[in-house]
Amino acid sequence: MTAAPSHRSPGSGVPRAWQAILCLAVLLLLGQAPAAAVEGRFEVRSATLELVDGVYFLDARVQYRLSTEALNALEAGVALTIELQLEVERRRRLLPNQTVAALNQRYQLQYHALSNRYVLRNLNSGEQESFATLFAALNQLGRVVELPVIDAALLDRDSRYQFRLRAVLDTREFPGPLRLLAFWADGWRIESDWYRWRLDD
To answer: FRET partner for 91 with CA separation of 20 to 30 A, picked from 8, 115, 116, 170?
Structure first.
């Protein structure tokens, strides 16, 4: 007796959430022709420190341009995490500089299709803002104003210090399949060069 053919739907053993993630990964991989691809670029344009009441505060300007892959993911509802990494180094003559402090300022950018708004959230403080355009959201993200960095009392007056700052697209919190795709695709590796300046400049 011949067994009845199975009517099980393809992929029915895979949870729907994971099916959606896998479909998104394929769409992001195949979504744009190479000729139309946009290369992502982050650039720290300027950075300065100001001492106020014994604390150094950072003002900086960063330019953000998302790659085609990142733009596609954002429009599909994937939250992008962007990290500002700042390090304080003690300058040494005969040895490599010594890192004495580090600060990671993290932001999350997400597009909400229902409201057609871009939401920018400061993951360190929990504050968030909403913008009508991606340009406005990235412009606000690139304006760092009076960010507390380090207490002056923690720095040795007899030592000389250098600061360095960069911006990085952090893909570590992506869902598994998308994180794997991001690992292999060049369009996801977006980070600025280190911007360096001396405390006595």
So the answer is: 170
